C-alpha cells in the first residue's frame, strides 16, 4: 500500500503570526465506504434536530424573564471567577490553554473550576487555577451560589447543563457559547458554537468576547517531580526501559477504536525493531480491551490499575503516546509528549491534538468525519494497516528527542 507516511524528523513551529501549530497529518489512499445502512442512526439524528429546533424558541422566551444583559466587566471588578466544564478528560485538557489566558487577563481574580471528578483531577497544582470543585450530578454546589462575579461556561455545543449551572450561580456576569437557545442563561453575548473551528480556537473566540487578548497559548498540564519519580519507579519494576511507548487502545465510542489485533501487531513490531517498552493503559471499563491485547502479544506490558494522576505521570515520561482519539491522547499532547493517533470518524477540524509534535494517521473516506458513536462498517479504521502505523511510530522514535515545555 503506497501512502505518505514518513513524518519530518522534527516538525517545525508554525511561523505564521497568531496561528496555532498544526499536527502532522499522515493520510493514505482514499477508500470507498459501503452504502449507508444505519437508518436507526439517521432517525436518532433527525429526532435530535427536531428537539433542538423546538427547544430553542422556548428557551429564548424564558430568557426574556431570566436574562439581564450587562456590559463587559472591568478587570478590577472580577475577584471571583468560575470556569465550568461538564464533559470529559480530553475537553478539560484542551481547555487548559484558555485557563492560562484567563489567569493572565484576570491576574487578581480567584479562579475556581467546576467539573466532574476525573477531568478535575487533571488540574491539580495547575498554576492557572486556585480552587477545584467537583460536580456530582446536575446540582450546583451550594458554596458557589451567589458568591461569584464572573462565570465562563466552555461547553462547545447545544448541551444545556453548563448553561443552567451558570445561571444558578446568579453571578452578574455570565458568558458561554450560543447554541439552540442556551444563551438565554447568560448575561454577556458569546460567540456561536461553530463546528468549523478547533476547540482550542473556539475557546479563544469566547475569551475574545470577554475582552481577553489572544495569546495563542497551547494546552498545558503540570506534573510534579514526585509524580514523575513514582512513574519511573513503576516502569523500572516492569522492566520498561527507553524508548517508552504508552499505548491506549480505548475510546469513549466503539466507532473510535482501532482493532485490538492491529495494536498488538504494532506493539510487536516496535518491540522487535526498536526494543521499545510498550505499556498498555486503560481507563474504567477498558480492562477487557487491555486483556485481549495482552493475550495477542507477550510484548505488551500492563501498566496496571492507575489513578488519574498516576496515568498523567506515566504519560509525562513517555517517549511516544500511541492511541485513538481519546482523553489520554489530549492529555499526552498537553504534556508536550509526541503523539501518534489513529483517527476514524472524529472530525479532525475540531479535535486533532494541537501541538507541533502530534502526528495523526487517518484514511480519507467519503463518509468521514461522521462523528457517529457506532458504525456498521468501520472502513475509516479497518483500512489502516498496522505496518503503516508502526513505520510512522518508528520514524518519530528515531527522530531527535523533542517536546515543548508543557506548563
Quick structural overview:
With 407 residues, this protein is an alpha/beta fold. The chain is built from 13 helices and twelve strands.
Structure report:
- There is one protein chain.
- This protein is an alpha/beta fold.
- The chain folds into two domains: 181 residues, Rossmann fold; 137 residues, Rossmann fold (3-Layer(aba) Sandwich), CATH 3.40.50.
- The chain has 13 helices and twelve strands.
- The strands form two sheets. It has a seven-stranded parallel sheet, sandwiched between helices.
- α10 links the parallel β10 and β11.
- α7 crosses α8.
- It is globular.
- The N terminus is likely disordered.
Q: Extract low-pLDDT stretches.
A: 1-21
| Dominant shape | globular
- What is the helix fraction of residues, given as a range? 25-40%
The computed structural class is alpha/beta
- Average pLDDT rating: 87
The radius of gyration is 22 Å
Q: Per CATH, what is the topology of the largest domain?
A: Rossmann fold
- For the record, the count of structural domains works out to 2
Total strands: the figure is 12
Main pleated sheet: 7 strands, parallel
Instruction: State the distance separating the first and last CA atoms.
Output: 40 Å
Q: What strand line-up does the widest sheet have?
A: 1-12-11-10-7-8-9
Main CATH class of the largest domain = Alpha Beta
User: Strand content of the residues, in percent?
Assistant: 5-15%
CATH architectural category of the largest domain: 3-Layer(aba) Sandwich
Query: What string, H for helix and E for strand, traces the elements in order?
Result: EHEHEHEEHEHHEHEHEHEHEHEHH
The CATH homologous superfamily of the largest domain: Glycogen Phosphorylase B
